[in-house]
Amino acid sequence: MAQSHAPTVSVDAIPDARSSAEAGVVTLHRDGLVGMPGAFGRARGVELAQDFARLFARALSYEGGTVDRGPNRHYFSVPAEHLRGFLPLVTTPEVVALSELVCGPDWQVVEVAFDCPRGGSVHQPWHRDFDMSELTATEHRLTSLAFNVTTVDVTPEMGPFEIAPGTQWDDGSSWPHGMFPPTEEWPRYESLRQQRLARLGDISARTGLAIHRGTPNVTDVDRGVLILGVVAPEDGTPEHHRLTMTSRYLRSLPPDVRRHLRVSEVDELPPQPRQAHDIEGLVMGVVPEG
């Protein structure tokens, strides 16, 4: 269903968001992740949790509705128009400001998806989400961001996200796929690791280059997290990474939002979309070969 127009967000008109984002860039370059507690609002977080429960149940109801990222760990992209909070999220001042500062004025949203460890999920291998580009390796420039928004108040028993801060600059050129450090390097990441215990309404932003992993969920709570993927024009993300969106919904969005979306327009959304995105080596929660 198309949503009504929202006020256009001008970063220049929100100095607090801009100054906060500038500090966030410093933290992001140092740690690989920056938190924005309460930036989305708890009421929006509750609404997102309701949307997640509905969309996850639907995705699990047919073959190919999710991609495995390890035992009892699921990933699935969702149409932006099925999320009541999509427009509020992409116009959140902190999201807009940080996207512009890291990815430039022509930043684009290329991913809207959920990741969810269920009860019985296991440790993933330490990894990064993609290999490091030559631009990042030589100039220490980040060209993408993953904004994460939780659907639950996370506890240590729910399989929280673990990150090894500051490892986004590690040279992974000899690693399998440039993503998976060998096991002999794991003790270092173990010594650095931090668990992120997000609460409803929080937003965090990270670079997928920082070494991280999912941990075991020993509860019966589905710990869903929304992922909003943002890239710079020079980022190497393949062109097929884009949002599928109906023309009528796209037209309902403010122009200042539309210009930041990489979209494949369709007349109608498929009733049972098949998931194509995958991360090699995480399916069984073990170290990949080669």
Description:
The chain has helices at 15-31, 42-60, 86-90, 93-103, 134-139, 186-192, 247-252, 255-258; strands at residues 33-36, 67-68, 73-77, 108-117, 144-150, 162-163, 194-195, 203-206, 212-213, 225-231, 243-246, 263-266. Helix 1 packs across helix 4. The protein is globular and about 50 Å long. By secondary structure, it is α+β, with helices and mostly antiparallel strands. It has one domain: Jelly Rolls. The protein is built from 8 helices and 12 strands.
Which helices and strands appear, and what pairs or packs with what?
Elements: H1 15-31, E1 33-36, H2 42-60, E2 67-68, E3 73-77, H3 86-90, H4 93-103, E4 108-117, H5 134-139, E5 144-150, E6 162-163, H6 186-192, E7 194-195, E8 203-206, E9 212-213, E10 225-231, E11 243-246, H7 247-252, H8 255-258, E12 263-266
Parallel strand pairs: 11-12
Antiparallel strand pairs: 1-8, 2-3, 3-4, 4-10, 5-8, 5-10, 6-7, 6-9
